[in-house]
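Bench notes, bay 3.
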Amino acid sequence: MIVVMGATGATGGATLRSLSALGVPTRALSRDPARLAAALDGPALALARPVAADAADPASLREAFQGAKQLLLTMANGPRQVQYELNAVEAALACGVEHIVKVSAPAAEPDSPVAVSRGHHLVEERLRASGVRTTVLRPYAFMQKLLLQAPAIAAGVLPGAMKRARCNYVDVRDVGEAAAEVLTRPESAGGTVPLTGPRPYSHQELAALLHELLGHPVRHLELSPSEFHAHLAGRAGMPDWLATHVVEIQQLATLREEEPDDAFTRLTGRAPRTLEAFLGEHLHHFR
């Protein structure tokens, strides 16, 4: 049995859809199973069974993990993410889970300039120390996060704080497919898997692409990190911690040159989705 934590999140939901498409039953965890059941309604998620569990309650996790052999550990970034994920790891170990797929992030290092990545490092270290079989997925920036910038882009402006640095983007659906692969093919499990799209984009290149697809000018507006944070927390309505995270991710791109990785193609046998295709699907959000 495969247990999916973070089942109502983007990565958890994408993984559940991929596993259901493969005919694999899953146990999907949520603090609110009724809400999750409504979200899972439909043929694409017919094989996902909602189960009540709270990451803040280790006893509920141990009950939910009974009989499970694999765990997808993907939880929303947030102030208590590390503690919640460590609770899940300890419960999984206590219940004899044999393989944990941890959705992490780039630069998951103790001195990372990205606070969320430092937290991922702590969880990865616990997994390494435990000896349990672990697969670490390291997706780069989700294409879906660009939708948070839709109002500004619709007004013809793409704000950012990356200068001319290029950022890797990956479609969360590809992350779900990669997770499903390592959960269903034992020979592909283990190790660390970076996940990117086919090519990175600077904000200047992204603005030009949006201009081409939308048919109206989109200009890149370079802001200082503090100005960009104010924009995200104000006009984009992000919580302060999330705005800080987005700024840190963009600053990371200015410190470390990002290149595409072919790990997704080696894992799945197909090319990752392109940013052009994603934007084409969602143009109505940017008009």
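Next record in the batch:
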Amino acid sequence: MAKAIIMPKPGITVESCIMTKWLKKKGDTVALGDVLFSYETDKAAFEEEAKEAGTLLEIFFNDGDEVPCLANVCVIGNSGESVAGFAPQSEQAQPEQAPQTAPAAAAVEAAAPVITATADAEGRMKISPRAKALAQSSGADMRFVAATGPDGRIIERDIRALIDAGKTVHACVDASAIPDSVTGTGIGGKIMPHDLACAELSSEITPSCAEDVTVEKLSNMRKVIAKTMGESLNSMAQLTLNSSFDATELQKVRVTIKEKGAALGLGNITVNDMIMYAVARTLKNHKLLNANRIGDEMHFFRHVNLGMAVDTERGLMVPTIFSADTLSLNEISAQSKALASEVRSGAINPDKLTGGTFTVSNLGTLGVESFTPIINPPQTAILGVCCIQQKVKSVNGEMKLYPSMGLSITFDHKALDGADAARFLKELTANLESFTLLMAI
């Protein structure tokens, strides 16, 4: 008997997935456990194994298609069986309508016609004064405007739709002279002067030079990262404070754990694990940083759901250690390693990539001395962990070398002030310099 194979729902927050590659084709014999296709969300990649044996009778989606979760993607059964009724569109078909309802449906369609922008008798674009003023002040790219006002008139909401979609140009750019092929590289996709220069340069590339250029489309995940980072910078007043602390105590504790930890059942605890432990404890005293700003509301959390930035082949991913403030150092270490392994293998549940209240990003292992991490919205802050450098300080009148570790905190000035972030940074550095005492609390 023919059976449909559905697109899995890999997490409660996931509504659709991208079909990346079919590993079987129509007509192939499928054994139980064979991999049928691979798919991905905006954060993770998966493979779907056959739960039925038989012949692959039909495929409803192609590579690259966005597929709603739980929709039928293919049918497996015996050769010659009918697949009628399995197609996704037939599942979503509306029930048979009574004749008297047809005029009402037609009336609804007639009430919302698709209108394109029109010009008046003198050839000028029809646009309301409010819309025109907003377009001029915001630099809206009028090439993409869709008029929704009466008789093809552009109104204020049409301009706001352009702004929300990132369709804007720099004040120095003549919007009337922009080729359709130009892509903006400014914040939120704004077209900058150098974008036009690059477009002109690329149009002059000779065939011999063009052969040396490899063009690859951005991955689905890279597009999401780009969109999220752009929205973060557009929607927040971000500012970074830099500080450092004496990592002598931290290094001593780690050496002790490496030497004696195995006998006590401790895993391979890293300096980053110790920093995340200290961050989770310190945040409990700074609610403005353990929060989400959503519109004009602040959402405060009773526990610290700590995001940890992980570098993967597919891009930056941020899994969450939930209720990190209640976990021991060993538990945080174990969870961080498990989550990092899951995201790097592409098999993490997307639900584990949501719900963070604060994020830690460590570039110290790459030798970075200071940087400006970008906040993961709607969080209000993110901590950047930098490398250890040998610095000099005065101890009892003598100049001595010590290991100095840098910390960079970026915060949303719309949600908190610089003094709030500075107080958190000061308490955190004190806790890290007295790490043994912190573990005893």
